[in-house]
Every structure is written in C-alpha cells, then in structure tokens.
Amino acid sequence: MTPSSVPSPETTATGAPRPGGAAPLAGRPVSRIGFGAMQLDRLRGDRPAAVALLRRAVELGVDHVDTAQFYGDGLVNGLIREAVRPEDDVLVATKVGATSDRGSLGLRLAQRPEELRKAVEENLAALGVDRLALVNLRRTDTGPGLRAEGDQVVGLDDQLAVMTALRDEGKIGAIGLSSVSLDVLRRAVRAGIACVQNAYSLVAREDEELLTLCVAEGIAWVPYFPLGGAFPGVPKATDEQAVLDAARSLGATPAQIALAWLLRHAPNVLLIPGTADAGHLEANLAAGAITFDDAALAALDAVPSRSAAVPLG
Questions:
Q1: How are beta strands 91-96 and 64-66 bridged, if at all?
Q2: Tens digit of each residue's pLDDT (9 = 90 or more) over 142-196
Q3: pLDDT, tens digit, for every residue of 60-98?
Q4: Which of 114, 212, 243, 265 is the most buried (most CB within 10 A)?
C-alpha cells in the first residue's frame, strides 16, 4: 500500500468518501457502513455479477466486508478473494464457531477449540491470506439461531485460549464476539475484544446495556438483523409509524431510516447490511447521509423494543 492510498477518516484507500463517516475497528478506521456478504450466495449462478457487486461496493466507499467460510459453503470467500484487491485495503472480517452442513439447516455448530482452529485455517486458505484481520467467535449465548448441546457446550475460557493463541501466532489480527450476553462480554474484555456482533435494531434493543459497555470499552458494535423481522412473527423496524413518518418527511425509504437511526444511536455502531442487488447496495450506503431533526429523532427513540420469541433452529 502506497502512502497516498492509506485510509483516512474522510476517505478509503481508493479515495472514496466513507458512507456514514468513519469509526475504528480492529485498530484502523473503516467506513461506518460496510457490506455483509452472506447474500452473495444468491448469485451463485452468476459469478461475474457477484464479483461486480463487490467491486461496486468498494468503489462506493466500503472497506469493511463481513463474511464466513460457511457462507455458501466457501463460495462467498472465494468471491471476495477474486473481487477485493490488496490495494483496496478492505478489512475482511470473518467468523468461526459454525460450519456448513448439507442437512436441512445448512449449518451446524463447531464450537470446540480444535474446530475453531480448523475454521481459521480454512478461512485463511479460502481468502488467500496469511493473516485474518478480524475473526468473530460466534457463540450461542443469546439471540436467534442454534443452541449448543453435548460436546458443543464449550466454556468461554477454552475458546478464548485458542483464539488468543491464534492471534499470538499472527494468524488473527483481532478477535470479535457474536451472539454473546453481557456477562460473557464482561468476562472476555480482558482478552482484548475488537467488536461485538449481536442481533439489534430499532425494535430489538434488549442489549442496550451491552452496547453501553462496548462504548465504554472502545469496542465496535456491529448489529446483525439491523431491520428486525428476520423471522416470521418478529417485528420489523420498517413497519413502525415513526419510521414511516420520517421516511416520508425525508424522502427516504423506511429501511434507510432504520439504518440511519442505528448510526445516530451510538458512535461505535458499524453497519454491515447485505444484498445481492446493486440498487439496494447504493440505497443502503446512502443511509449514511441521512440526518434527523430533534423531533424526528425523539419519535424514533421512543419506539418501544418489540422483540418476540424467535426460532432456535
């Protein structure tokens, strides 16, 4: 990377303005709106379109891409390797703790220390790098999704031991956590945690105390399901009247309003909305330019958290 391409708070290494501005992640600035790559699997039949979408994201100022080897059973990591160039200086964050399963769920837990190490090695090989900038440990303490049983019930200390060992070996740059409780984060802080990925949105704010701890500790907050409504019967932020009113007033979509609220809610929030459509990508990134007046912000802040029970399948 040449000195002229070093990322700054204002622009990425490619010179693109940062959607939503910049915030720190794993020791460097990144754009506050990044890209979640999971939905690229929908373009499995059109690899050039998937690569073009990733290139377009980088052109528009994305320099934080979230992935996992189990996305598309390795397909997504291969697309990132093809599309993202070293000179783009994109922080690619991946995750471990689960693996692909050709059964009905398409995913199974892989929580044991040896499985975490294997997953890191698989991500390194698939992405074609010697070091993973950020690896999120996906646990099962909270949020929707699978719950650990049997030999998949693994203590936090055992997991952090292998993650910090991998960091000491230079295979991991920074460690994040996903689907964790407040107690687990409190215990993990001493290991040096770069970010937390939990389900969180305007209508699902049970983790507010956890978010507050992240702000205090300088830990990035990277919410998944940022619009809510990931499962049938679960409330959607885009259905809230305050969101609809703000969208109408500002000439934005309800989804843009819900994303913009997250950016406004806390300074350490980084978004990774995913899509397989170029127009939707541009709309997501445009949410970073939305500002609220005091009345609109107060109305959005007053929306109650409406989370409901979600499947654990």
A1: parallel
A2: 988 889 999 999 999 999 999 999 999 999 999 999 999 999 999 999 999 999 9
A3: 999 999 999 999 999 999 999 999 999 999 999 999 999
A4: 243
User: At residue 19, what is the residue type?
Assistant: P
Smallest Cα–Cα separation from 253: which of 228, 219, 213, 287? 287
The two structure tokens encoding residue 35: 């890209």
How far apart are the C-alpha atoms of 68 and 17, rounded to whole Å?
27
Domain residue limits at 56: 28-234+266-275
Full-model pTM: 0.94
195 lies in some domain? yes
CA-to-CA separations, 281 to 19, 28, 53, in angstroms, rounded = 11, 24, 8
Selected catalytic residue, list 71, 221, 261, 292: 71
Q: Indicate whether 164 belongs to any domain.
A: yes
Query: Is 128 within a domain?
Result: yes
- Kindly state whether residue 113 falls inside one of the protein's structural domains: yes
Domains contained in the chain, number? 1
Round the CA-based radius of gyration of the chain to a whole number and report it.
Answer: 19
> What CATH number should be reported for the domain holding residue 166?
3.20.20.100
pLDDT per position as a tens digit, 13-36: 999 999 999 999 999 999 999 999
Residues 313, 302: Cα–Cα separation, whole Å:
32
Whether the Cβ atoms of residue 61 and residue 18 lie closer than 8 Å to each other: yes
